[in-house]
Automatic annotation (TrEMBL):
Repeat among keywords: no
InterPro entries attached to this UniProt entry: BaiN-like, BaiN-like_dom_sf, FAD/NAD-bd_sf, RsdA/BaiN/AoA(So)-like_dom, RsdA/BaiN/AoA(So)_Rossmann
The organism's taxonomic lineage, starting at the top: Bacteria, Pseudomonadati, Bacteroidota, Cytophagia, Cytophagales
Domain RsdA/BaiN/AoA(So)-like insert: 191-351
Species whose genome carries this gene: Dyadobacter flavalbus
Keywords annotated in UniProt: FAD, Flavoprotein
Name the UniProt record assigns to this protein: NAD(P)/FAD-dependent oxidoreductase
PANTHER family tied to this protein: OS12G0638800 PROTEIN
Keyword Kinase: no
Length: 420
């Protein structure tokens, strides 16, 4: 049996190794259009590779997937984050957990993960071909052969008994054209992890300043997220914004990425509590200059920026502060508003929502419902997670399970079977 896997990324490699180890008599071939493989693994996590997220109860873990939760509920029950950790450890790679739950190789190098996959693939006799692009494929439906013909940019035809698509997401619908022609519904792809551009933001000069806990909301929607926030040269980033962008991906696209975001820089306090604490400072530290010491743990540069916007000059003492200026400062701390006019892809870690409709695949095996012998895994499916290792976990899980089933004898239905 010949198994062809189109795509030499995270899910493609996991699927290839899973297939080769479970079906040792099969010939497993990875076909990658780029000169090198596992390119997204190489750059992820700033070159450290955020392999997965610390295992937790399945009910909580799947809440980190804006799309695909129902499918992953079934699949993670068979290969979850704990299984991922064990898979790597058995192959000599130990992972460590950071305070926010993200897990990285102890080496802090993505090359460790790449080397692990290359070695495992080599040990399982997986063949790897690079710089070869599959432009299209056709299904063979005659009485003597059941399989696929793959047509490459090298004017070459490759035969496969089973075919797995692990090409990742495409930024535009046209990228899925070669799959749509095989009767698969494509959920329109859209960016899922991106930062907010706020060109009229008075805080842009503070690029690099961050807070560890802020609540970011998108006005006019129910979307909000609480977590670390980073001020950038173009607007806002950090986990709170990135995770919010994933949940709001489709709504924000409909708004053409023009909307108002509101930030509560002190999510543990409500507006009244903040106002009362500021007023108390007039009694507690009447002689102290307001801008000399930040309150609430706010970075001093950010505190000074808020004070300036509240018309509090740098020499003003607490005893001299007016209720009007303290009210304005309270509003800025608990309900700052910024006009977002566009987005920026988060570093090079491009993630999309959209892809092959999950209604078109068998949830137990990830085989196509309409084309027997054709499988899908990874981001080419309409599944995406928030930042923190969840997208890679989707790659490992779907890749492992697709590989587990792709060589099974009963995958292909008899050609002349009567369907009742």
């Amino acid at each position: 049996m010949q198994i062809a896997i189109v795509g030499g990324g995270a899910s493609g490699f996991m699927a290839a190794i899973s297939a080769a180890e479970n079906y040792p008599d099969a010939r497993v071939l990875i076909i990658e259009k780029n000169r090198t493989v596992l390119n997204k693994v190489r750059i992820s996590g700033g070159g450290r590779c955020n392999v997965t997220h610390n295992p937790s109860d399945l009910r909580f873990f799947i809440k980190n997937y804006p799309r695909g939760e129902k499918l992953l509920r079934k699949l993670l029950g068979r290969f979850d984050a704990a299984a991922t950790i064990s898979w790597f450890e058995k192959r000599g790679v130990k992972l460590k957990t950071e305070p926010d739950g993200r897990m990285f190789p102890v080496s802090d190098s993505s090359q460790t993960i790449i080397d692990c996959f290359l070695k495992a693939a080599r040990n399982a006799n997986v063949e790897i071909r690079t710089s070869v692009s599959v432009k299209s494929f056709s299904k063979i439906t005659n009485d003597t052969q059941q399989g696929f013909l793959l047509y490459t940019d090298q004017n070459e035809t490759i035969y496969a008994d089973r075919l797995l698509i692990a090409t990742g997401g495409y930024p535009k619908p046209e990228g899925f054209g070669w799959l749509r022609s095989h009767d698969h519904e494509i959920v329109s792809p859209l960016p899922s992890l991106f930062t907010f551009n706020t060109p009229d933001n008075d805080l842009l000069p503070l690029a690099g300043v961050s807070v560890q806990d802020a609540l970011v909301k998108i006005s006019g929607t129910k979307h909000e997220w609480r977590g670390p926030l980073l001020i950038t040269h173009w607007g806002f980033s950090g986990p709170a914004v990135l995770k919010l962008s994933a949940w709001g991906a489709r709504d924000l696209a409909e708004k053409n990425y023009h909307f108002t975001c509101r930030i509560n820089w002190l999510p543990d306090f409500n507006e009244q509590q903040v106002r009362e604490i500021l007023i108390q400072e007039k009694v507690k530290t009447p002689r102290q200059q307001i801008t000399s010491h930040a309150r609430f743990g706010i970075p001093l540069r950010l505190w000074k920026a808020f004070a300036e916007k509240a018309e509090i000059n740098e020499n003003l003492r607490w005893s001299e502060a007016t209720n009007k200026s303290l009210n304005k400062l309270t509003e800025l701390l608990t309900n700052s508003q910024f006009e977002v006019k566009g987005k920026t892809t988060f570093k090079e870690e491009f993630v999309t929502c959209g892809g092959i409709s999950l209604a078109d695949v068998k949830p137990e095996t990830l085989e196509s419902k309409s084309v027997p012998g054709l499988f899908f895994c990874g981001e080419v499916l309409d599944v995406d997670g928030i930042t923190g290792g969840f997208n890679f976990q989707n790659a490992w899980t779907t890749g492992y399970i697709a590989g587990l089933h792709i060589g099974a004898e009963n995958v292909i239905e008899p050609l002349h079977q009567n369907k009742l």
